[in-house]
């Protein structure tokens, strides 16, 4: 009887809670549009008359913007990936709907608390917003205990590090520290970049191999060099740590440069140019290229002051994070709902739009030095356009039952 009751409770939940990719990718798409939409609206009002309505957030808008795109958007994409992939890595059943309900509820509670932080004490906002990553980490540790492979245990470091980065932000927002918010956001972006280097380093060559073989191009396949991957991930972790510690620019810049060089070496061996026939695959290569350029841009900023530092961080945040997460979400959603692994033309356009958003936001201010707002609005427009296409095409996919695949396809997540 208890088992029947539990089954009834599970079956009563909407279908979006029957797969981590469903609920969290929907939430990621929502915050991608709402977060940037609200940010652009604030900028537009400020640009027009310098007067803004009474805010519902208690912190500087630019910090709120960075916080929500990192811990909100990136947090949702990370949770969606982990709750989908980790059960298959460890040989366990899929994540329970009740677990997904709890985790997504904590994520949503954090977003509401931060968006309306002017209405409640800062300590309450912090207490609510800081719950999500520890809960995700506990679930992850329990799952990985069934098959604790070292390369997967590294994700525990990332989720714990993201909690600590968020804690740095809230320590300043609650007045318990004089600073830390900007460092926390930057350290969080650096940690998410390590996640991209790990996940991208697994799925990009694996899915490229599958795509090339299906296309009859199996004569030259991607080559994976584990030691080069280890060096790239280590450099990324060192870079994140140095940023969190507010180390001298020379040290952080050298670490960023090393991460760029090592990841570029990996990418050069994955036969990306031979996969231009497949948007689901070339998008992964393009996203990884943006990761490399992002690290290099930050290194150029820190070492030579050649690029505005804030603009350089946006290249990692918009380009590497935005495009890699979109590329993985679109592939996972197709594979795990039994659909053919083929991107709609509009999704290929969305990939390009996110890449253009990164380039425009990073280098636009240098092209138009006397016009602060135009590059930001153009970049934001590209971002919203890309994720609007994602929402239009993938909302039905994520909210409808699985369909039977008509043809065999590659596994949507790599081990």
TrEMBL record:
InterPro entries: NnrS (IPR010266). The keyword Ribonucleoprotein does not apply. The keyword DNA-binding does not apply. The chain crosses the membrane at residues 23-45, 70-88, 100-118, 124-141, 153-171, 183-203, 224-243, 249-268, 280-304, 310-329, 341-360, 372-395. Keywords: Membrane, Transmembrane, Transmembrane helix. It comes from the Bacteria. It holds the Pfam family NnrS. This is Uncharacterized protein involved in response to NO.
């Amino acid at each position: 009887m208890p088992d029947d009751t539990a089954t009834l409770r599970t079956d009563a939940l909407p279908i979006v809670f029957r797969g981590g990719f469903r609920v969290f990718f929907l939430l990621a798409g929502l915050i991608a549009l709402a977060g940037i939409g609200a940010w652009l609206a604030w900028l537009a009002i400020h640009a027009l008359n310098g007067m803004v309505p009474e805010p519902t957030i208690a912190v500087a808008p630019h910090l709120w913007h960075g916080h929500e795109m990192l811990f909100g958007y990136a947090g949702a994409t990370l949770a969606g990936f982990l709750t989908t992939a980790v059960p298959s890595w460890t040989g366990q059943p899929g994540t329970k709907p009740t677990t997904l309900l709890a985790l997504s509820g904590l994520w949503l509670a954090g977003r509401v608390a931060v968006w309306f932080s002017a209405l409640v004490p800062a300590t309450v906002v912090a207490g609510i917003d800081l719950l999500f990553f520890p809960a995700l980490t506990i679930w992850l540790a329990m799952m990985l205990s069934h098959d604790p492979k070292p390369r997967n245990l590294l994700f525990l470091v990332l989720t714990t590090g993201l909690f600590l980065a968020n804690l740095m932000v809230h320590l300043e927002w609650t007045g318990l520290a004089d600073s830390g918010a900007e460092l926390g956001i930057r350290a969080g972006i650096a940690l998410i970049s390590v996640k991209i280097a790990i996940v991208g380093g697994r799925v990009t060559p694996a899915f490229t191999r599958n795509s090339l073989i299906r296309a009859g191009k199996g004569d030259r396949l991607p080559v994976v060099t584990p030691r080069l991957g280890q060096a790239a991930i280590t450099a990324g972790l060192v870079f994140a740590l140095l940023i969190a510690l507010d180390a001298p620019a020379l040290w952080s810049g050298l670490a960023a440069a090393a991460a760029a060089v090592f990841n570029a070496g990996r990418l050069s061996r994955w036969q990306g140019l031979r996969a231009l026939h497949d948007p689901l695959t070339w998008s992964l290569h393009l996203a990884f290229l943006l990761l490399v350029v992002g690290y290099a841009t930050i290194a150029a900023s820190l070492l030579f002051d050649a690029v505005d530092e804030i603009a350089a961080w946006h290249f990692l945040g918009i380009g590497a994070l935005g495009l890699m997460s979109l590329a993985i979400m679109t592939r996972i959603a197709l594979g795990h709902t039994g659909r053919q692994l083929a991107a709609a033309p509009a999704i290929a356009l969305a990939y390009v739009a996110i890449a253009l958003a990164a380039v425009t936001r990073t280098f636009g201010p240098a092209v138009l030095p006397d016009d602060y707002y135009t590059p930001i609005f153009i970049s934001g427009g590209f971002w919203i356009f890309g994720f609007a296409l994602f929402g239009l095409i993938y909302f039905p996919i994520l909210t409808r039952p699985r369909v039977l695949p008509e043809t065999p396809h590659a596994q949507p997540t790599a081990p």
